[in-house]
Amino acid sequence: MNDRFLRACRRQPVDRAPLWIMRQAGRYLPEYRELRARVDFLTLCRTPELAVEASLQPLQRFDLDASIIFSDILLPLEALGCELTFDPAPKIARPLKTVADIAALTPRPLAEVVPYVGESIALLRRELAGRVPVIGFCGAPFTLASYMVEGGGSKSFILIKRLMFEQPKLAHVLFEKLTRTLIPYLEMQVDAGARIVQIFDSWGGELSPHDFETFSLPYLQRMVSALKAKGVPVIVFGTAMSTHLPLLRRTGADVLGVDWRIEIDQARALAGPDVALQGNLDPLALFLPRAELEARVGDILRRAGPVGHIFNLGHGILPPTDPEAAKHLVEAVHRLGCHVTAPASP
Amino acid sequence: MNDRFLRACRRQPVDRAPLWIMRQAGRYLPEYRELRARVDFLTLCRTPELAVEASLQPLQRFDLDASIIFSDILLPLEALGCELTFDPAPKIARPLKTVADIAALTPRPLAEVVPYVGESIALLRRELAGRVPVIGFCGAPFTLASYMVEGGGSKSFILIKRLMFEQPKLAHVLFEKLTRTLIPYLEMQVDAGARIVQIFDSWGGELSPHDFETFSLPYLQRMVSALKAKGVPVIVFGTAMSTHLPLLRRTGADVLGVDWRIEIDQARALAGPDVALQGNLDPLALFLPRAELEARVGDILRRAGPVGHIFNLGHGILPPTDPEAAKHLVEAVHRLGCHVTAPASP
Questions:
Q1: B156–A240: do the CB atoms touch at under 8 Å?
Q2: How far is residue B116 CA from its own chain's centroid?
Q3: Where are the beta strands (DSSP E) in B188-304?
Q4: A102 Cβ neighbours under 8 A, 6+ residues apart
Q5: Which domains does chain B have, with CATH numbers?
Q6: Measured between alpha carbons, how far is A332 from A302 in angstroms, rounded to an integer?
Q7: Distance from CA of A1 to the nearest CA of B (A)
Q8: pLDDT tens, B245-298?
Q9: Region class of A237: left (phi > 0), else alpha (psi between -120 and 50), else beta
């Protein structure tokens, strides 16, 4: 078993920086586009054999240190009665508008609604046969609530913030229901074989520090604590939220995701020494000439240091990216992330 | 003349924190919506009497410390041959795609293309009769180039970043042409009567520190330096760019805009003591109950301190905002931003 990723999450010495790529199973791969030409996105997510096929595609090309299960953060919302479509942007059929809408959200058993997620992870783990660990994931309550209230993506997050500011108790009811759905959802993924979990608070950076502390942090803390009790490292990720790093360390997460808007050594200064960091190459850097891409990889590795760093992009790889560039990235991390002399002590 | 704003820009003592509201002339005001029912957005911008009417509307309701000329950052792009439409999101008719497209951009005399901006400012200044200073503004080269290359707004800024990463020399040609257009554009606004200028690098926060330093900072430095030579304070504003504050201080700007994603005392620590700060209330805070809005205003004023702070939102006021909430904001800043005991020495 390649345990480089797990060791880095725990800030133990590693022979080289572990590496995975957010959205590594995705549209930049021709074999993924071929798969998608045959089935729609939701069918792909809901069919374990196909989800595993998509999850494995990048591993067949690149020597990555983890496999993330192919899925979407919005799927568990179906357990709360949400109807989803992807076209390709996600849409929620009836955005939450009233007290009654939120009161009516009654969590149904996950095993009935999203059984395929556990089945996919179990199958993926068998297929990987110990090659690399499986990452399970979910969205954070604030981020998922944003989709449920806005009905999809948003620019100014006006509806979810109005809910929080005008009816804070009701907002907390929604976050509470989500937390109670998401903890067993992640536990199910761990029981099925996920060795690491990542929580995407993709829009947490839209909040002021005060609002992040009030409306997102308490729920993240509970989720992290429940998952750590299951023995797996937890990664908390968001974008444009580096100014929240001092708050994010209070989540108790083993690893904090960092986007490219900050140098990773500055992120380290804000996060403190007792947490691992994941990141932080701009996904667009994959369009740089190879030598410059390598220089940026080297810079990140130097700034991050040899302990407690998982190399990744600062956000998902973009569909127009050339898979060859991803290959160069992987090779560069392998070569430049090598810690020839392992640190003397953990 | 109310010179509170100018004094705060220069970190001189003031009786209370000066205040304006980004997009204070805009759709949240019923009288603005009435004006827009009669004329389209571009006609409004291009007709000095109407632009001045819109600029003055918020001043008739609220005791603000500055008037910003009603206009749009994209208008000077017409001097480079761009065709603009607003529906209501801005669109560029033929986004730049090739070397030839960028080579073909030949700056035309601003006095021919956007004479109405200077006329509007001169008329606004006369109408204000010294009540408050006029703010002139423009976009930053990187931000305007994003619109020109993406053709409008963008999510991942893939086209402008590909230009920068794949053809950096060509990107610099574009930024250079923009800088040479924007400096005289701002100078024209100062000559017409603007007493302060604000440069909107709205999307600068999408760049890594390295890329911001390479592709935006040098042009901002030249613009700031040229405008300071005209004797006016310069504000540089962007969102999600607090991690760039140590770079932004190198622009030489008198004032740096701060959004709500960071506490303003933390922003002060990053920006250093020798620059004023503007901000930083979340525009959505205007939907809070009045007492909580006031608590947030008080918190920002305390964290910012009495010297070198201009109160503002961290981004533009949103159309669904109740004008009464804006009134409460203004009253709260007047009451809580009062420095009863002026600092002993400047």
A1: no
A2: 19
A3: 196-200, 234-237, 255-257, 276-281
A4: A96, A170, A173, A174, A177
A5: 4-336 (3.20.20.210)
A6: 13
A7: 35
A8: 999 999 999 999 999 999 999 999 999 999 999 999 999 999 999 999 999 999
A9: beta
